[in-house]
Amino acid sequence: MKIEDAAQLTQSYFCLDCGVCTGSCPVSRVLPSFSPRLIVEKALLGLGEELLRDRDLWSCLTCSRCFERCPSSINFPEFMRLLREEALQRGTTPMLSHHGMLQTIMELQTQGIKENKTQWASEAGQIADRGDTFFFVGCMPYFQVIFADIGVDSLSVSSSIIKILNAGGITPVVSNDEHCCGHDMLWNGNVDVFKKLAAHNLEVIRASGARRVVFNCPEGYYTFKHHYQEFFGDLGFEVVHFYELVSQMLAEERLQLRENGAASITFHDPCRLGRMAKIYDAPREILSKLPGCHFVEMERNRENAVCCGTSGWANCGTGSKRIQAERLQEAAATGARTLVTACPKCQIHLNCALGNLDMDLEIKDLTILLAEAVG
Ligand code: SF4
Ligand code: SF4
Ligand code: SF4
């Protein structure tokens, strides 16, 4: 897409040059040369060609903090996404974290390889091949292998979801044929691979007969809810976040929670779940109902929460590490000893940073806390 069209689509022509975006940006705080205001200005001054070659294009976390506050409602993350698409077509690529291993796995999934990644699910509880409710597991089986060495047990979250759904009387469909949702490919500018992954997932879900698809990964949820519909129209099924479903099950008393020891906890809002999907209350409602749980907010919460420091497996550098360390210090400053996350990637990135810090803090996924209370 031409830069002028991207500027038009994202309302960038209405920029007031106020600098609120740069003042809100976590990257600008740690890398002062990075400025969303200047990026918009350059695009409007016809310096887009320069922008497409600039590394800054890939430094943005697409966290939406600037969009949330921009007085002209300029969708800067979407502007970045569209520019990345154009840059990639011209041969400019990001510095990929983990040497591009995650992106390679995503691309390989479009090559018709046979995957065998659901044995854990049948060990976790009751699952089905066809049914009303499809549980979209996402990249957790891959994360389990790649990030076990930093102490992250990704599949324990997925297994807990099956246990909790079963306890609420739901037998979910879990499919070996499901692919990555394509979120990272889309935000890395690779729309072709995104579309292949998405088209395949839609086919698999529709063949299962599901009327609703449940996600715990905020990226998968947001991608289906927003981008799948943008690219493919009506999906023919409902897109539901696991925490919304749990809140409903708790309200209807379909789930019983018991005390599992007292804990002082704080909560990190993921960008895709919070600012982008506007789900702030459901995780807090669950936390408020966990017996023995003392919940305390971090200073920057909800709309003001700060990203976990890296996104789309691109550009994890010293700036990311500073953002993560500051976020962990903010969590510790609440007095809580447990930082609860609600996104598989927040859990991975923050754990990765915690491993290099001497802090009395544990990171735990909300689903694990919930599963412990369900028993
Ligand atoms: S906050 Fe919005 S209007 Fe202000 S400089 Fe940034 S993009 Fe422009
Ligand atoms: S999306 Fe986030 S990281 Fe990117 S410019 Fe806006 S505030 Fe900064
Ligand atoms: S924070 Fe750690 S796990 Fe996350 S991308 Fe960077 S190096 Fe990888």
Architecture overview:
The strands form 2 sheets. A 4-stranded parallel β-sheet has the order 5-4-6-7, with helices on both faces. It has a 3-stranded parallel β-sheet with strand order 1-2-3. Helix 11 (154-167) crosses helix 20, helix 15 crosses helix 17 (281-289) and helix 18 (318-333) packs across helix 19. The protein has 20 helices and 7 strands. With 375 residues, it is an alpha/beta fold. The protein has helices at residues 3-9, 20-24, 26-30, 36-44, 48-53, 65-69, 76-89, 101-108, 119-124, 140-146, 154-167, 183-187, 191-207, 218-232, 242-251, 272-276, 281-289, 318-333, 344-354, 366-374; strands at residues 133-136, 212-215, 238-241, 263-267, 293-295, 338-341, 362-365. It is globular. The structure holds iron/sulfur cluster (SF4) (3 copies).
Please report the number of helical segments.
Answer: 20
User: Can you count the beta strands?
Assistant: 7
| Biggest beta sheet attributes | 4 strands, parallel
Helix content bin:
40-55%
Shape: globular
Please report the distance between the alpha carbons of the first and last residues: 51 Å
Largest sheet strand order: 5-4-6-7
Bound molecules: iron/sulfur cluster
Mean pLDDT: 96
Low-pLDDT segments: none
Class based on secondary structure composition and strand pairing:
alpha/beta
> Would you list the SSEs in sequence order as H and E?
HHHHHHHHHEHHHHEHEHEHHEHEHEH
- The Rg value, from CA coordinates, equals 20 Å
Residue fraction in strands: 5-15%
